[in-house]
Specification:
The chain is α+β, with helices and mostly antiparallel strands and about 200 residues long. Helices cover about 40% and strands about 20% of the residues.
């Protein structure tokens, strides 16, 4: 049962070759896995980008809350929100309708009775409606914009803010928010444009 030195070396060499072959197979398998994982990175990035796009444009469509929500929250709890937008790369146009059961417009000091601001309000609404008219006919704002200027009267409250108040490089129509609170229907209309 004693093996010769030569038999032991031959067997050792065979085992070494087998281990070497197994190592090469393991190395190749590892390289294939690494290569497949590397190829998966662009795919995963693409899938995540699609998910973000769907979330932004589909799920939040008609339920998105504008950036100046605090103005609306000060009025009270709204019962219903209808929201339409027309997004661009950096410019967008938004129109929202909020209805309230028991609003408290006096809680928001930015809102003022219409009074002398009617001329300025009409300028903003005309500008906004021009943007709606040139929007894509497929956009939700083009299809659903239905504001009727004739409902505005002296009992309504408005609040207008624009970027020119804070940053001098903007004109008043570059980026603005217009809020009109219709006292009779307890409805707040929100208009936003950013070009």
């Amino acid at each position: 049962m004693h093996r010769t030195l030569r038999e032991r070396n031959t067997q050792g060499l065979s085992e070494c070759r087998m281990q070497s072959a197994e190592c090469r197979i393991s190395e190749r398998f590892a390289l294939i896995i690494i290569e497949k994982r590397t190829m998966m990175i662009p795919f995963v990035v693409f899938v995540l980008a699609v998910i973000v796009f769907v979330v932004k444009f589909e799920i939040f469509s008609n339920t998105y809350i504008p950036e100046y929500q605090e103005e609306i929250n000060l009025i009270g709890k709204n019962e219903c929100i209808v929201y339409y937008t027309n997004d661009g790369f950096q410019d967008y146009t938004d129109y929202a309708i909020y209805t309230f059961n028991s609003p408290n417009i006096e809680n928001n000091q930015n809102f003022k009775m219409l009074g002398e601001q009617q001329g300025e309000l009409e300028e903003y609404l005309d500008n906004f409606e021009n943007w709606v008219k040139i929007s894509s006919e497929e956009s939700e704002i083009y299809k659903n914009y239905d504001f009727d200027k004739t409902i505005i009267d002296e009992n309504d409250y408005i609040y207008i803010s624009d970027k020119s108040e804070k940053e001098s490089m903007y004109s008043k129509f570059d980026s603005y928010n217009v809020y009109i609170f219709d006292s009779q229907t307890k409805t707040l209309y929100y208009f936003h444009n950013n070009i």
